[in-house]
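Protocol step 6 of 9: fold each sequence in the batch and record its structure tokens directly after the sequence line. For illustration, a two-sequence batch is reproduced in full.

Sequence one:
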Amino acid sequence: MHLNQFLKFHPILKEKIWGGKKLNQLFNKNSNKDNIGESWEISDVENDTSIVCNGNLKDRNLKELISEFKGDLVGEKIYQQFGEKFPLLIKFIDAKEALSIQLHPNNELAQQRHNSFGKTEMWYVMQADEKANLIVGFKKDSNQKEYLANLERKSLLTILNVDEVCEGDVYFIPTGRVHAIGAGVLLAEIQQTSDITYRVYDWDRPNPDGTYRELHTEEALDAIDFKAQKSYKTSYNKEKNISSEIVSCPYFTTNVLPLSSKIKVNHSDKDSFVIYMCVKGAVLFMLNGGEEVLIMGETLLAPACIKEFEIIPREPSELLEVFIK
């Protein structure tokens, strides 16, 4: 069978103690639950493999497709490196309450302790309530002693950097960087395929049954990067109808693509799948007479073997374009 279609997947919805209703209300992620915190759009995390919801490959899962189509789906180099593991996890996140203060281990630590990839990630803010913020990194260089003293006193916020955010803000979160999504933020998250999180402070918030979520104080100590940055926000340029790079690292590259008119896309320079997340508006993907609609809050995967197609916005729209260099 020839792989000649864009792939869309059923979202995998995750209830979270901090989740809300925006994913349902704004993105039509059908759920009768009031606390959906995450929509996993494309996932190959164990027991959470995405299932196709469109076209001839409907009801097939991502793992089977990589096994069948190999480099045609993910790109030859990527297939050689990752085999049948899809290397990225793509999500939308709605924080009604703040997430725990946390960080992720790097590849070496994650491999050694959890037999997993590390977790480098990035955020693209899609909507933020007034005064909503993100916690990212330290205000100034810190160390284990100062950090532990503040952790014990529950005063971590006095040494952490807190930024008020608005739509379009981008943050890159390398492994080791302490971070938390604040209440009232809705964002797109792109990350390595890994579900390993070291939770260091959870606001003393109990679960509905009165228990508390596990903290990882000890594990986190060797994983934290105590160095501070001048600014944690990524600055980037946006140009209409042109794909502009906003983040690039060994694990993924993300471009922003604001659309006001039809464009022809050519990916013959890439040996990679390309993921599109619609963060505003609605667009039409056209391929040899076939078409696929993508609306805000939806995600689509263009297989590596599909090099040329057109994207037609139905209204002023914005896409994130994600691939591996």
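Sequence two, same batch, same settings:
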Amino acid sequence: MVDKIHRDQGRFRDIVRGKIRDNLRKYLSNGDLIGRKGKQLVSIPLPQLDIPHFRYGDNGRGGVGQGDGEIGRPIARGEGESGPGPAGAEPGEHLLEVDITLDELAALLGESLGLPQIEPKGKNRLERQKTKYSTVRRVGPESLRHFKRTYVAALRRQLVDGTYQPDAPCVLPIRDDRRYRSWRSTPEPDANALIIYMMDVSGSMGDEQKAVVRTCAFWIDTWLRSKYRGVERRFIIHDAAAKVVDETTFFQTRESGGTRISSAYHVAAGLLDGPFPHEDWNIYCFQFSDGDNWGEDSKEALRLLDQSLLPRCNLFCYGQVESPYGSGEFLRALDARFPAGADNLVTTEIEGKEGICDAIREFLGTGR
């Protein structure tokens, strides 16, 4: 019975994975994720999964096989039809919230977009303690009792003291015979990643643009967290000046004034000079802007990018979010400065929510 339950549960999970995979592009574009549950689960809305069943018509009220019909006459009244009209008594479509782990969601993202595996580039000097049950002790909890070792110890003792009878074998362990599994912790290198998000919060970046950035950041986090055990995130906002803020402030701040992209690059470079040296961390930078930049500041920004950020980053991504007020000038400056591109530099234009899927594929499809 237990095996059957597990088999049915596995089939249900496969159905859910298929539904999510079929609708993943919609989730990527619209951010239809109800919300995280803790740090490991996310709740996703799915159409109600109904078991196939027969649906009977209205007997004696006309229809197929019941009298003459006319061309164009409906066979039967539709059930659960949507759209304008008077109030009805039929049930509507319901959504089922399904919990799925972030690792499963990342795997579906990789399958859907064809994302390559990431090879960590840092030197992995940070260590974590790896626990492995590799030893046996005489004391421990009963749940960890090593039955084979206990039996061998009891048999050896009875053979030594002559109480073992081959014709009537009976091995009875005593307290001194009990053996328990035990663990040993050893340090091992751990691949860690730092994700730096930078966003222009000047007046031209409205709520719609920030919703695009928020959705992109969710999927970027989901993918990179599945590849690295330790992930740190830092959020930098800027107009004419830049500063590090928390995640809530990052997505809710809206200011006016000029724009100096170089100010964000100065703050990002300071993080790499200080608490997050690139020798120990895999560095990922994602910048979002509508492309506006003040005067000659693009020259300084490109200098910092070329000399301070690109040499120390696994990947630097610039996403230019479509805005009715943005000029798009900075993307043209990037293309002019790096006409042949760079191995770790990715630039793309995000044309509203419909462009999120392609942007994520561009950003994460390098395998860096």
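Proceed to step 7 once all outputs are recorded. Observation for sequence two: The chain has a mean pLDDT of 78.
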